[in-house]
Amino acid sequence: MITGKELVFAALRRETVSRAPWVPFVGVHGAFLLGVSSTDFLKSADLIVQGQTRAAELYRPDGLPIVFDLQLEAEALGCELAWADDVPPSVISHPLQTSADAVHLPPLDFNAGRYPVVREASRRLAATLGANTALYGLITGPFTLLSHLRGSELFLDMLTDPDGVKSAMDWCADAAIAAAGFYLRNGADVIAVVDPMTSQISSAHFDEFVGPYVNKVFDAVRGKGGFSSLFVCGDATRNLEVMCRTRCDNVSVDENIPLVQLREHAAHFHKSYGGNIRLTTVLLLGSEDDAKLDAIRCFDEGLGPGFILAPGCDLPYATPEANLRAVADMALDPYQRDVARVSARASAVDSFEDIVLPDYAAEEAVVIDCITLDSSACAPCQYMVDAAVRAAERASVPVHVHEHKIKNRNGVGMMCRLGVKNIPTICIDGVAKFVSIMPDIDTLVAAIEARHREKK
């Protein structure tokens, strides 16, 4: 009988398989399964091994990440982290004064930060799960790593010093290659280059500032005998073609992107592709029936060879076990899938009539609503909220900034009442102005001040 690992490998080669592989991206959810905090979990090889092993028992995956933490490289390179109980840490300091300064940083030291913890966890998981389960080593993509090192000023550097940014991206690509080698040496089979900040730029900027450098990483992974995936969360619809044009084996996306559209691009470029079970409204906040029906949606849209069923990003900490086990049933048992098509009932549609929007026109201040997944856990969300706060401080008019996290009903309600379809999004006085694309500070300040003049 074919193993789950072999099934994943076949899908990555875009071969016809008996069923689509199932790869739940279990990160800090492993801590939830053990009843410990994310902080304790991500600092302990014992807890990581226990959490991922428990996830393997419960969810019967074909592939599983070793660790889902996009701050490992940044921490080892000197960025300060803020820790929390139910999300991965977030980067709170950016050591580079200019992007071009990246070339003067020391190379990644795999005895620094938490790399020794991850090394031990990787080796132990490879020994216990690796024979039957494809282990994913998740590394921070070059553009997101540079965002961690430089902060939101990176977007201004792209305009004022493009050559400096490109030299920095080349350095970050070398760091990513080193991180990929670290995982491959310690038992990983697939290297997922997770680069969520690329959802915040145009396709032209992707071609100029991202494509050549991620290709360098993908070529290195292939040269070492591994498979590679480009994993981008956020609304990267505009960049689907250029993402599929890179030299990775697989492109994985979240719920912001139509899976049918990705399927068409993947077929054209002969790529494997993965996604895109809805994280919050279904897996975290929905019922077992919601989870079953959304998994069925993915199967219906993910036709043909190369498809891998997966959530759109790192699973929220408190995702109910029952919802993920329901998805596993849909992935592994076609009979149960057929039954669910007939019997499952979607949750009643919530009108959110009790969520009251401010009277924006009557407010003296300009109101900025940032609709996010969670700025403490999602890099694009973090930098978008940071940009809004900094623009509010710089603007010459009164500004109120509010973050609405769609990890709870109020956040989902604000998203629906404001008509926001993709995250992260900045709304100015109730109007979506920057939808899943990062504005530079000057542009955002100008938009705020223009809105204030309109209100007078």
Write up this protein.
By secondary structure, this protein is α/β, with parallel strands linked by helices. It has helices spanning 4-12, 29-34, 38-42, 45-59, 72-76, 115-128, 142-150, 154-160, 162-185, 203-223, 240-244, 259-268, 279-284, 288-301, 321-332, 334-343, 379-394, 409-417, 441-455; strands at 63-65, 81-82, 90-91, 134-140, 190-194, 227-232, 250-253, 272-277, 307-311, 366-372, 399-405, 425-428, 431-435. Strands 1-4-5-6-7-8-9 form a seven-stranded parallel β-sheet. Strands 11-10-12-13 form a four-stranded mixed β-sheet. Strand 7 (250-253), helix 12 and strand 8 (272-277) form a beta-alpha-beta unit. Helix 8 (154-160) packs across helix 9 (162-185) and helix 17 packs across helix 19 (441-455). The longest helix has 24 residues, at 162-185. The radius of gyration is 21 Å and the shape is globular. The model has no long low-confidence stretch (mean pLDDT 93).
